Structures are given as C-alpha cells and as structure tokens.
Amino acid sequence: MSNSEHLQIEKLARIKDQVKNGGGEKRIYEQHKKGKWTARERIGYLLDSDSFVELQPFITSRHEVENGESYNGDGVITGYGKIAGKPVYIYAQDFTVHGGSLGEMHGKKIAAILDLAGKNGAPIIGLIDSGGARIQEGVASLDGYGQIFRRNVLYSGVVPQISVIMGPSAGGAVYSPVLTDFIIMVENTSHMFITGPKVLKEVTGEELGPEVLGGAGIHSQKSGNAHLVKATEQEALEALKTLLSYFPEHNQQRARLSLNKEKTDNLRPQLLDIVPSDSKAAYNVKRIIEQVADKGSFMEIHEHFAKNIVVGFARLKGEAVGFVCNQPKYKAGGLDIDASDKAARFIRFCDCFNLPLITLEDVTGFIPGVKQEHEGIIRHGAKIAYAYAEATVPKITVILRKAFGGAYVALNSKALGADIVYAWPQAEIAVMGPEGAASILYGEEIEGAADPTKIKEAKISAYREKHANPYAAAALGMVDDVISPEQTRIILIQALEIMYNKHEERPKKKHGNMPL
Ligand code: HXC
C-alpha cells in the first residue's frame, strides 16, 4: 500500500470514529444520566452480534454546512442487520445530535431505509428519540416528515413496521410511529405528544408534566396509542424481538413455524371448569387461551387498554396465530368504542401478514348507553364487522358462552365469512339475553299475571330452552359443530392444518372504505 493510500484509510477511520461519537461525549453522558442508551447502544443490543451494516453515515445537514458546526449522520443511524437470523431494516434517532430532531437530510435518510425495507421485503424498526421537526431547518423538516409518512403508508401491509419510543417523541415525531403497526413505549423515559408541555402552557394555559400529558401509562391505558409498555429499554427491545418472532418478513410469506413448538394436542380437561355455570358470572378468558395455545406462547397486545377484549399472538403446534377474545372479567365482555378499535386494528394486522384468526366469543352485545351512542359506537363497532368480513386468512370462531345480537354477527359469525364456527354446549346464541327477550315478548302478559315473577321466570326458561342454546344455530348451519370444551385445542389444530393453503380472492377494487 502506498503512503497516500495509507493516509486515506487513516482518514476514513478517523471520520468513522467521529460519526460514532454522535453529538459528543458530554451529550452522551447526559443521555446515560437520564437512564437512556445511545442510538448505537440500542442497535448493538437489538441486532444479532456483528450483523449491523450501517448506511449513509456521511449524510450531513445542508443547513449546517452553510451555517456552522455539522454532524456526520445528521442525528439518525440507519442500516440493516438480523434479529434471530432474520433480516430487518432499522433506524435509530440520536438524541445527542440536536435532540434527535428531524431535518431535511435526517428525513431523507429514514425515507431511504424505508424504501429498502419495502422493496426488499423485511420488517422496518424505528427507535424514536426525537424533539420533532428541526426548528432551524424550517419547512425542509416538515417536508422530511411528509416523505416518511408517505412511505409508512406505502409499505403498510407490505412489511411489518414497529416503532419503539425511547425518549421524547414530540410534534411531527408522533405521526410516523402511529402510522406503523405497533408502538412500544418505555416507562418514565418515553413521551409522545403533538404539543409539548411548554407550548401547551402558552396556548391553552394548561400546566401538565410530560408523564401526565403523554407518558407510557397514558398511551397504554387511555389513548391506546401504545401497544406494549416495558419498564426498561432492554425489556422494550426484548419485547420487540418476541413480537417479530410471530411475523413473516413480508406479506407474501407465512410466519415461520416455531422451532420449540409444543407437540401435544391432547385433551385439555382443565377447560371444563373455567366458564362458570352461572351465565352471568365472570371469569378470565386468558385462562382459556393458556389451555388452548402452546404453553407460554401467548403475547398479549394492548394489555392495559380496553380490557373488555383480549387480543394477542400465540402459537398452536408451532403455527403463529392471532387471538381475539371477549373478556367477561371486564364490562361483562361487552363491546364498546375502544374495544372495537382495538380488535379491528389487530384483525387487520393479522390479515395483512397471513396470521390465522381465532375468536373466542362470550359477548353480551355492544355496550348500551348515551355516552357510547353519542361518541359513535355505531361506526366504531362496525369496524369489527368490516375487519372480519375483509379478512381472507383462516378464520375460526369458538362460542364459549353468550353470543348475542349485533355482537354475535360482528364477531366472525358464519354469515360474515368465518370458515368454521364451533360452540361449547353451554353456548347461548340469540338476538338478546333471555331476560330482555322475555320482557319484550311477554311484557303485558307478565305485568297482568297474578304472580309476575313466577310467570317471568317461566318465560325466561322457555326462551332459554328454545333459543338460547347452540343447537338452533347448529340446525341452521351457523354453527358447524358443538364440541366439548376439552377438545378445543385438538380441534383448532386440526382446523389450522386443513386450512393452511386457504386462498380467497375478493372483487378487484382500489381499497375499501372502512368506517373510521
Ligand atoms: C431543534 C431541538 C429540537 C427541535 C430539541 N432540540 N428539540 N433542536 N429542533 N425540535 C435540541 C435542543 O436545542 C438541545 O440542543 C438538544 O436538542 C436537547 O434538548 P433539551 O431541550 O436540552 O433536552 P430536554 O430537556 O431533554 O428536552 C427534550 C424536549 C425539548 C422535550 C424534546 O427539547 C422540547 O420540548 N423540544 C421541542 C419539542 C417540540 O415542541 N417539537 C415540535 C416541533 S414542531 P443542544 O445543542 O443544547 O444539545 C413539529 C411539527 C411537525 O414537529 C409536524 C409534521 C407533520
């Protein structure tokens, strides 16, 4: 090697060292002091060792080149690598450079990595730590966001997109994550808001700290923006790895079978004792999921939001599936606005990425009341029906107990396109519960009777006998079979195996118009 070549290589190493130093030692120290890792440390932890390949480390802000100090990389690290041997594309915002704010070139870099992920068919991961639009770059920053949003939408349903919020996510920085499939937040150190506390105080006079305005608790319990919340950055990145393990790399693929699949498909007698014989008594549907799914394979999504419905990924004999289940423990498992939004979004994700849907149903109906009506339960509730009817993946329903009215129809009924509907023997499938039905049908007769209570009870019992059982629905073909609860796991595994090659075409259209 000649002397000049040697010097060039030394120069390259020097610049790359500078790149690795981000916004400098002092700011890295500040980052650590807040309990946060740097962008590079996060990538290093997340990806398989030595698999990260960085792209565009020399990108620099044009604004800064013209106006003073500039940083190679422009506050975001992008590239590709592997997680559990599978390819992923990644970007991680570097808070030590202008607070991870998004300027023109920073935006271009993210857009470029999104294009690579979308065109090459691998998941895209965003590690967000950003003060939003880089104020000093003006409209160029806003344009940068637009470039990213467009690509989030373009590749939505093409490759899984996951965002982990690991610091502030302020202003424009919130919209890209929310356009992706999943948001994971870290307790105490991550915050999401369109308008930060300082601006809020100026504009509305409200004085709220970041945690109350947009902390992980708020977004995982109240707004529903965050799908998973973890106590530390390490746990959040581990959750991301687990989440990815259920997904294929892109929408033309099936998820890989789990290697440590549970082979047993034996009877589960424990399922005989979970649903109480009193049809009004509550129970925890997660106990049923645990018995039906491979041991320890259930990963709940949106655990703390709209608890009256439970959604999550699991495996059955190694195959990844999505579970959608009413939760009688909360609001008697009734469907409200938040539950409808939660379920519909989950169903659509599963359909995008070829994950069969298993619905465990025990629902009294859509929750009545003026609040729900005025806030739009009609259009929100319709999202569930829309999402199920639209989905072409294998769709199986098991009616555990109650299946009443519109909620029965919306929750993957046969009419809506379920492939197979099973019911347990104690299932009650009817337009409404026996008590309400008796009042409406025989109200006058009951009121005029010498002993109204006795007559009412007789009417309720006659109604239950005639309508509130699984056999009327089975006789009409709306239930394919009535099964003993203990058979459920075996029967679901058989159904999934037989439906593995399911293919369903839909009329050609640009896209549907889901009620939003
Ligand atoms: C440029 C920014 C910045 C921004 C932070 N910095 N936000 N630089 N543009 N948006 C810089 C700071 O100047 C500072 O630089 C460094 O990042 C760290 O910021 P601090 O304020 O010292 O850190 P901290 O106290 O931890 O507070 C972080 C913060 C706060 C909560 C993010 O900086 C903040 O509130 N920033 C503004 C957030 C905001 O309102 N963004 C909305 C922008 S408008 P030095 O050199 O000192 O290290 C927007 C609309 C887009 O995004 C809409 C698109 C659709």
TrEMBL record:
Domain of life from the UniProt record: Bacteria
SUPFAM superfamilies named among the record's database cross-references: ClpP/crotonase
Stretch forming the signal peptide: none
Domain CoA carboxyltransferase N-terminal, first and last residues per copy: 5-259
GO molecular function: ligase activity
Record carries keyword Protein transport: no
Keywords: Ligase
Stretches assigned to the CoA carboxyltransferase C-terminal domain: 263-506
InterPro entries, alphabetized: AccD/PCCB, AcCoA_carboxyl_beta, Acetyl_CoA_COase_Trfase_b_su, ClpP/crotonase-like_dom_sf, COA_CT_C, COA_CT_N
Keyword Ligase: yes
EC numbers for this chain: 6.-.-.-
Segments forming a coiled coil: none
Name used for this protein in its record: Acyl-CoA carboxylase subunit beta
Protein source organism: Oceanobacillus kapialis
